[in-house]
Prior knowledge:
The complex is a heterodimer of chains A (428) and B (742). Chain A has helices at 5-33, 48-51, 70-90, 120-138, 164-172, 183-194, 220-229, 244-253, 263-271, 344-351, 404-414, 418-427; strands at 57-59, 65-67, 99-106, 143-150, 153-161, 202-209, 233-238, 257-259, 291-292, 295-296, 302-304, 311-313, 318-319, 326-327, 332-333, 340-341, 361-364, 391-394, 401-402. Chain A is an alpha/beta fold and 428 residues long. Chain A has 3 domains: 94-283, von Willebrand factor, type A domain (Rossmann fold, 3-Layer(aba) Sandwich); 295-352, no CATH class; 357-423, Zinc/RING finger domain, C3HC4 (zinc finger) (Herpes Virus-1, 2-Layer Sandwich). In chain A, the strands form 6 sheets. In chain A, strands 5-4-3-6-7-8 form a 6-stranded mixed sheet, with helices on both faces. Chain A is globular and about 65 Å long. With 742 residues, chain B is of the alpha/beta class. The longest helix of chain B has 24 residues, at 254-277. Chain B starts with a strand and ends with a helix. Chain A: Keywords: DNA damage, DNA repair, Metal-binding, Nucleus, Transcription, Transcription regulation, Zinc, Zinc-finger.
Amino acid sequence: xxGVGGGGGGFNASxxxxxxRRNQEEDExxxxxxxxxxxxxxxxxxAYADDRSWEALQEDESGLLxxxxxxxxxxxxxxxxxLLRSAAAAVRIQKGLIRYLYIVIDLSRAASEMDYRPSRMAxxxxxxxxxxxxxxxxxxxxxxxxVTIKDGISHRLTDIGGSPESQIKALMGKLExxxxxxxxxxxxxxxxxxxxxxSYGHKEVLIxxxxxxxxxxxxxxxxxxxxxxxxxxxxxxxxxAEIFICKHLCEETGGSYTVALDESHFKELLLEHxxxxxxxxxxxxxxxxxxxxPQRGAEDLISICSCHxxxxxxxxxxxxxxxxxxVCELPTECRTCGLTLVSSPHLARSYHHLFPVAPFDEVxxxxxxxxxxxxxxxxxxxxNSDSQSNLHVRCPKCxxxxxFDCDIYIHESLHNCPGCESQRSFSS
Amino acid sequence: MWFDLDGLxxxxxxxxxxxxxxxxxxxxxxxxxxxxxALLEMPTGTGKTAALISLIxxxxxxxxxxxxxLFYCTRTVHEMEKTLAELRLxxxxxxxxxxxxxxxxxxxxxxxxxxxxxVSASGAVDTGCRRLTASWVCEKAAYxxxxxxxxxxxxxxxxxxxxxGDLALYIQPGVYTLADLRSLGRERRICPYFLARHxxxxxxxxxxxxxxxxxxxxxxxVSSEMQKDCVVVFDEVHNIDNVCIEALSVSIRKxxxxxxxxxxxxxxxxxxxxxxxxxxxxxxxxxxxxDGLAQRxxxxxxxxxxxxxxxxxxxxxxxxxxxxxxxxxxxxxxxxLVRNLDERVDTxxxxxxxxxxxxxxxxxxxxxxxxxxxxxxDRLQSLxxxxxxxxxxxxxxxxxxxxxxxxxxxxxxGFSIIIEPYDDRMPDIRDPVIQxxxxxxxxxxxxxxxxxxxxxxxxxxxxxxxxxxRLLNFNxxxxxxFTMSLTRDCICPMVLTRGSDQLPVSxxxxxxxxxxxxxxxxxxxxxxxxxxxxxxxxxxxxxxxxDGIVSSWNDMGILQEIMQHKLVFIETPDVVETTLALDNYRxxxxxxxxxxxFSVARGKVVEGIDFNRHYGRLVIMFGVPFQYTLSKIxxxxxxxxxxxxxxxxxxxxxVGRVIRSKAxxxxxxxxxxxxxxxxxxxKLPGWIRSHLHDAHLNLSxxxxxxxxxxxxxxxxxxxxxxxxxxxxxxxxxDKARDAMEM
Lengths: 428, 742
């Protein structure tokens, strides 16, 4: 794919674009610091209650306070995650690529607590939005639905579906909290919905739990057993502390249970659920799935779409190859004939989960070393005036050196090592 | 794994050993080598039991010339099962040649072991069992086959096998838990209780409740078979002195006296009946008593139910005084005694007497000599056996009175008799009671120390460690306290001195009823209930204080707010009620509803119950639990001991129940301004003090809340289970090699 010259250039461009995208998040935080004249406020000048300026400091060995080196911290966190994931991937594990995930958002009284800024609820919603986008990015063949718990009862916010936008819109419109929380009601509701899912789909529940207790109408243990029997993988991310019943639920159903320390940790934990989990052993038997690859309709074709019951021109939708009905978005399941409709790029994008790029080795820069002066990806110099960060990474296969930004970009977005790819085109 | 400990090959059933376990084993080995007693304190959850049994078993295997037997005394049946599970794991790691030589079993009461379908289902197992297995029942059945006297098949199999001497065929070497014994009993149709009791003689390791050794009434049946070269281990015995004292304390209420009168009437009827039908039996008993008590030993095994108290040997050799040898005479003596006690108990003011003066007054008023008093208990046993009475529970009252009389007659020091017309807590209700309280804990345990070469006393909280040898009157060769090496900061003690309004909180007498203090305590609990998941345990200083504060919280509406977060359970002096409350508390913690348990620091009911894992994420100690110094008994005891230093032990025990393993975590809040003083704090055990950071010494409610939230989040993070503190076999070998080179 990549030409020697042109390909490299193209990569450069996209890398800076991605850098910009990532920086945007940091900028959001930085924005507050910048006042009208562009001067950055000192830590003591900020409003302390909103900003929690003390959290940006850490104590070093000699007891001095230092600002936290965010870049290195982010990178080290990311590497830990990557290594964890690749350790699991080293043995070829079958992965569930077609996932049916219900996200449960706890909107009980506890969600209004202010220990996350501005409130737990707002943080959860913000991170859930990012998660839904990331999820569809990584799992184009999967489906998501939203469920909320409020006043002790659970309520289905959105039907399980494949479009991120509609899910996010539904979530943002419903942000208020009150009452108790009930794990059992939520699980019962989801159990009812997920039972109808075809057997090749992986049923998952991700619970974002603010409360520290659950007021259930019956025995929650029975519900846990039921979920276990119907092979629903339940994972919980707690916002406050470890709760026994959640731990029990996750252990029984094979999910993961984590508790967030703060907002950034919460986001990190949430995004860990985006890549597909290993398939449950009972499903390991391979079976064939019938899929349709619909084509975009012709410009002049006017028809009623099956999802919104609205008149649409053919160019806005896709035509099911079996029953010729019009659908608005992919991936989905045909309303009429029940065929799974995907597009081939979706399939291709899921492919990288099976063959991930090997994690890069961390190397420290040695003076006088040849060839490692610049990052192979973005051509930035790896030698920094700042003596702390002459640490960088190297691909174990092609031995090219990369900077931290490119490392993250390659593993998170590109899923191909530019060094290895260009070598291959040399040899061929 | 196998490693070498000062020349002793030790088999340890785990892959890694904590350094404190290694040290613990070293000290234990030294005590065994020196054939002396040991007192070892090591925090709970560090694998005391595993270290103990693996060292002693390895020691026994390495020295086949000195057949070492282990008697492991636990507090509850549950702990017994845990110990046996640990033993099973150890045995599975031993080489088969060694393992097949060892027999380990648990021993419990008939209630826990009975497999007879009807008897085990009924409530009164002991009585039911005796009704089927007493020697005269068996004789009658053998004599008169047609009358179809009901017998226990399981016991008959045992009896037949015991007579043939082939009981060993029934039980193979290995580890037998109570459940194993029961299933073995069902399978081979043999009584597990009697089989276990018989096999105690041959077993290498016996695990049982420490009542079997300490309570002299039970001890002599079961434990008399032990030889000198046994190792006796008392595990989790932070309140061993109380157990010893209780074993020798008797309290007699009005109901007891009424019941005793009823018993006496029943007995006299029985005597009349026997005189009419079978006078020879009474005569035989009379002749036996003339010969002396020393010959009592040859009674059949199933008849010996409650043997004598801890009587000095010389008494056993004395003959029973003439005036109580005949059944009728004995009965009149008992009547006089009961009537005398009945008069004594009707007093208007509190009386505190020494046993000697009490015995003298009995002599002058009822005409019973001290030597006669001494024999009453044994004489009663003998009479009950002669009269073929199986229902022990019914005759409990008269037994209690004889017990009382025997103790008064036997001991001149270390006891006092307190007669109180009413309970201090409820001065309006007349509830007279005669209490014979023992002050000297060493009386009950002294025979144990004298009889066995090595007695190991071990617990999570024994501090101050120098107090125990004095209380129990023994000389340990080793007495040490170990600290826990934790993989992370899993306990978070905090001292809370102020409420969120910055006013000090305390249960000091002048402050405790202040509404501000009560409200601050309430707010503290409320805030914590909203921030801590699952279970919270609150300890109060006394029942009356708890009742008061809970009702004022109810009036302030704080209790209702707490109920929004968690259910509330309260300990009461009633055992059944509290057990139910505890059960429901556990359920509420399990199902995620969350619960708060209100308990009293010196509450009898909750003593010995662990609030580990999610059952106690937080313990709040409201106030400083002093010993209740207004209690007459305690005052008398303090006078005897001239010793006051055990006050703070209670606080440590209350909070110490949160942690039971290294993976566990929990918080402790000491809510009283007095804890910030050094003299109070220094009495807490070292492992708590070492985690008490200076920053947590003087907190207010909101600061404590913040700390709690942070702590809980931190503890919920995954951590390295293997732990850096564990050492593997190679590490230990390296260490040994280093030591050699040095």
